[in-house]
Amino acid sequence: MVKSEEPAGGVTQDASGADPRPGSADELLTLEELTARVGLTVRTVRFYTSRGLVPPPIRRGRSGYYSAVHLARIELVLELQSHGFTLSAIERYVAGIPDDATPEDIALARTMLAPWQSDLPVEMDRDQLEQKAGRALSAEDVATLQALGVLRIRGASYLVASNQLAIGIRLLELGFPREVAAAAAAVYQEHGEQMAKELYEVINDKLAPLYDDASTSAHFREIMERLKPLSVGGLVSAYESAVARAARTPRRR
Questions:
Q1: What pLDDT does 131 receive?
Q2: Burial of residue 58, with CB atoms counted within 10 A of its CB: 0-12 exposed, 13-18 middle, 19 or more buried
Q3: What's this model's pTM, rounded to 2 decimal places?
Q4: Which residue from 8, 27, 147, 162 has the highest number of Cβ atoms inside 10 Å of its Cβ?
Q5: Cβ atoms 251, 245 nearer than 8 A
Q6: First-to-final CA distance of the chain
Q7: CB contact set of 215 (below 8 Å; sequence gap of 6+)
Q8: What is the dihedral of CA 222, 69, 150, 140, to 10 degrees?
Q9: Contact between 50 and 94 (Cβ < 8 Å)
Q10: Which residues, 6 or more positions from 231, have their beta carbon under 8 angstroms from its beta carbon?
Q11: Could you give the CA distance from residue 98 to residue 164 in angstroms, rounded to a whole number?
Q12: What are the angstrom distances between the C-alpha of 35 and each of 29, 32, 130?
């Protein structure tokens, strides 16, 4: 269970017209099948739904079904719990994931939750943000921090990666241009999505078939958890090597 909260009564809502995004060939799970897959109780799944951590079930007549998206979001919540985050912190993180995120998108979000990550985005108003930053922030400054991924705007407040804010502020002081931050963000998005897709295909096509029932195998799940920090470490090492090579390459004129 998520820390510090007890389940309220399970509330499910109609999701007519929602894209089920099945994991394979229109696969949909009943509530009982879903709970068996993720190792949770019916009450807990309904609690997650009532708090907006998991979408409502997909309605087919009087019955509700769950897709690969539901499964991926539950696994993300469980991952966040394993890092020790409270319900409010998990809600803030999940709120930043687009409603139309695919299972691959959500898997990438899980992958990027490195074991050494110390916090999740903190919600702040403008005064709190500037106090934390140690300076007044112009609209251009905020836009640059947003492009750098240091903060996201949600209504009248900001979701701030507080452990990265000082880095972003220093880049502002060094005159780092917003257009470069935006261009870099586009690169991260494009290649991040491609990486998630290719890793998903490798695991689905080459690793999962080695297990009789990878979807419910505790052995397979442990392999995936052990593999994740190595995958993140490999990505970081490859990125650092590429940046170092680029820095040594004479600038084109």
A1: 93
A2: buried
A3: 0.48
A4: 147
A5: no
A6: 57
A7: 37
A8: 170
A9: no
A10: 111, 199
A11: 22
A12: 9, 5, 44
**d(Cα 36, Cα 55) in Å, to the nearest integer?**
18
pLDDT tens readout for residues 204-225: 888 888 877 766 667 777 777 6
d(CA 7, CA 247): 52
**Residue in the structure block whose two tokens are 């009789």:** 212
The answer to whether residues 46 and 6 touch, using CB atoms and an 8 Å cutoff, is no
Quote the radius of gyration of the chain (alpha carbons, Å): 20
Question: Which residue matches tokens 């509530």?
Answer: 31
Q: Which amino acid is at 58?
A: I
